[in-house]
Amino acid sequence: MPISMRRFKRLAIALSLVVISMLREQRAYAADGRIQFIGTISDQTCKINGSDKNADLVVNLPKVNTSALATPNDRAGLVSFVLKLTGCKAKSGTVYPHFLMGETVDPSTGRLLNSSSGIGGAKNVQIELLGSDLGVLQLARESGDQNVLKAELQAVSVGEPAITTGEATMKFYSQYVASGGPATAGEVESYVLYEMVYP
């Protein structure tokens, strides 16, 4: 059946609109550049404080008086803790913990918020983490920029027959910091998640 001139014009217009639309879409998706992502998946592992699975640690801060935290940025109750790595597959290289940004990390101070902020919780107090050199850790920053000192793995031979693995010990400190006003009496509790960065 022959196509009428009117139907032919309508069909031509419709096809033209489809072609124009396709050309516009191509122009909209034209690239200005490329961002490439490169990473490495490692099978390096260590025991952390003797555990190869649940490497949780509880740090008991000392009881301090509110007078020690009477003005903002007052600090008190310095106490140390250790992350000891043993049985590492790698026998050399650097290791360090990357502290994860979570709900307990104050993005403006890089310190830990008091999660006992309800009834019975101390007000205007945070927990600050420090490295072995007493440099303040910036928990709100990215890995490698948190002011965490890297530890060197040392080769250690154990057992009979001797098996050589890597070991490292990392010392840290924590303390109370008055934040936003004088600290009030009450409970203080917080936590931070971490993941080890291996060579």
Number of domains: 1
Strand fraction: 25-35%
CATH fold naming: Immunoglobulin-like
Shape: flat
Uncertain residue segments: none
Would you tell me the overall average pLDDT? Answer: 86
The top level CATH class name: Mainly Beta
Reading the helices and strands in chain order gives HEEEEEEEEE
Distance between the termini: 76 Å
Structural class: alpha+beta
Number of helices: 1
Give me the Rg, rounded: 29 Å
Helix content: 10-25%
Examine the secondary-structure arrangement and name the CATH architecture: Sandwich
Largest sheet: 6 strands, antiparallel
Spell out the CATH superfamily: Fimbrial-type adhesion domain
Give the beta-strand count.
Answer: 9
Layout of SSEs?
Layout: H1 5-28, E1 47-48, E2 75-88, E3 94-99, E4 112-113, E5 125-130, E6 151-152, E7 154-158, E8 163-178, E9 194-197
Antiparallel strand pairs: 1-2, 2-8, 3-6, 3-9, 4-5, 5-8, 7-8
Description:
With 199 residues, this protein is α+β, with helices and mostly antiparallel strands. The chain has one domain: Immunoglobulin-like. Helices cover 12% and strands 29% of the residues. The chain has 1 helix and 9 strands; from the N terminus they run H-E-E-E-E-E-E-E-E-E. The strands form 2 sheets. Strands 1, 2, 4, 5, 7 and 8 form a 6-stranded antiparallel sheet that branches. Strands 6-3-9 form a 3-stranded antiparallel sheet, with no helix packed on it. Strand 7 (154-158) and strand 8 form a beta hairpin. The radius of gyration is 29 Å and the shape is flat. The model has no long low-confidence stretch (mean pLDDT 86).
